[in-house]
Amino acid sequence: MPARQSLGVGGIRDPIKQMIKFDQVTKTYDKVTALKNITVEIHKGEFISLVGQSGAGKSTFISLIIGEDRADSGRILIDDIDVSQIRHNNIPYLRRKIGVVFQDIRLLPNRTVAENVAFAMEVSGETSHAIKKEVPKILELVGLQDRENAFPHEMSGGERQRVAIARALAHKPVLLLADEPTGNLDSINAWDIIQLLMKINKTGTTVILATHAKDLVNSVKKRVITIEKGEIIYDQEKGKYVL
Amino acid sequence: MNTIIPKRLIQSGVTNFLRNIWISIAATSMVAITLFIISTILILYTLIALSVQNSTDKVGVVTAYFNATTTDKEMANVQAEIQGLPGVKSVQFTTRQQAKDLFKQRHQNEPSLLHTLDEFSDSDNPIPASLAIRANNLTDYPSIYNTLISDRYAPFFQTIRDNQKVINKLHSIIGFITKFGLVLALIFMLVTIMVTFNTIRLTIYNRREEVEIMRLVGATNWYIRWPFMIEAILYALFATVFVTLIVFIILMLLSGRIEQFLSVSSLGTSLIKALFWKILLVNLLASVGLGLVASGIAMRRYLKV
Questions:
Q1: Contact status of B253 with chain A (Cβ, < 8 Å)
Q2: Domain co-membership, B158 together with B78
Q3: Which of A239, B16, B126, B280 could disulfide-link B231, Cβ–Cβ 3.0 to 4.6 Å?
Q4: pTM, entire model
């Protein structure tokens, strides 16, 4: 198994291309250590599968990146922003650089597909003109160009997750986080979503896919980081789900 | 880019208001009731102040009645001396004859009294000459009164009457009304804050999904907060317009009676105009202030940003 000591690899890579750096990060919730002294680097344009069983620390990893939680110790650099030191007021601007997709999708039920995507752009003060121009392009990218006027309840689970991905892409993020995006989907829809994420990755967006879907990870054939009990136990290029 | 965000925030606030229209109406009504009470107190206070001013001019006077033995020269000297006392605004001399005429005029419908008075010859006129002394301020009366009852003036005067008691009573009534009004207004303000707080809390609860998503896609804290504040401001605006109109219609309808009560010929358009702006401004400030406090507390407790 070509396990890689991620700590040592940092110097080899071009530091300008560094997207995310966890430097000895520890996070504890009520005496339960969710992440234990994690050090890892993720580079621009990478596709990372973050795997591990439920409760291993995958979601903590993601919530630290988007500033939802603060690390107890260590540094987290996202595109040269130190998230562990970021001021509360600046978190929204960090989040406009990062797209997030969840297992429970979280669409606004009383808005159409196009309005759900537009919502993300409205929030950051994009003009109505720009929104009108951009939304169809994003919907085309996720393959929903014909469903822009549909409401979430009229769509399948897979389609809804595509809308969520479209919304996450609305700010043209440099980083896309997907936390168990296929958790509620059948295997065909799940594979479609993974392929969509890979397609987005090809456009240059860094993608982190947190999942415990073994088959999916194995067919992606990209870098796999395995977390168990809050620690990175494997970090492999073109890895496999090994737990 | 500059106007698009405020536009969206206002739109969002209006949507909040309309989505739970009945709850919004209830909250607006509560704000309106409080404003109504505040307006009423303000009007009462203004009218009472006016009436006090009127009555102070009438009752706020110390009257010193000369002895029958005091000579005209002494009277003139005393008048000049009192004129020079600190705090004295005016001294008006009433001769015995003038006092008698005034008495006759006042009691013209009481023939028995007039008849009794006519029993006296002009030289035996029992009604004394007097000085009516007015002060610059109400607070000057006690010291003037004390000077007049001092030994210096004792030989000239038989009686000195001041209206301090009446003035005091008037003041305690105003004081009571003011205090009562303020307490009442305070109670209603608290209730309004609670009702508005609860309504905003409900809106926050109804919109929790939307707020969660807004945070995820990078909405700033103020972008999330403003719609809730705008909702509270809308309650305030509607209540202010409604109450100010109602209060003025009532004031117009009652102006005749108020004039009668205050025994003034007319309240005057300038007073009404001033009152209108005062009420509009006070209502607006009070309601917007209450709304912002209430929504502020609700957001602090229930809106995670």
A1: no
A2: yes
A3: B16
A4: 0.73
Is the Cβ pair B8, A122 closer than 8 Å? yes
B5 CB neighbours in chain A (<8 A) are: 125
The 10s digit of each residue's pLDDT in B15-58 is 889 988 998 999 999 999 999 989 988 888 888 777 776 766 66
What angle in degrees, to the nearest 10, is found between the helix axes of B4-19 and B221-262?
70
**Are B175 and B297 members of one domain?**
yes
Counting the structural domains of chain B, the total is 2
Q: Are residues B254 and B171 in the same domain?
A: yes
- For residue B174, what are the domain limits? 4-56+167-302
A161 in Cβ contact with A193 (< 8 Å): yes
The domain that contains B132 carries what CATH number? 3.30.70.3040
User: Which tens digits make up the pLDDT trace of B1-22?
Assistant: 468 888 999 988 898 899 889 9
**Helical pair B221-262 and B269-302, crossing angle rounded to 10 deg:** 150
Q: Are residue B156 and residue B137 in the same domain, yes or no?
A: yes
Q: What is the ipTM of this complex?
A: 0.81
CB contact, 8 Å: A111 with chain B? no
Q: Which of B127, B296, B87 is nearest to B196 (CA)?
A: B296
| B162, B181, B203 - which closes a domain | B162
Q: What residue spans define the domains of chain A?
A: 104-172
CB-CB under 8 Å, A106 with B213: yes
Candidates B216, B224, B225, B303, partner chain A, best to mutate (most A CBs within 10 A): B216
Token pair 């009668």 is found at: B260
Q: Residue A4 — pLDDT band, cuts 50, 70, 90?
A: very low
Total residue count of chain B as it appears in this document: 305
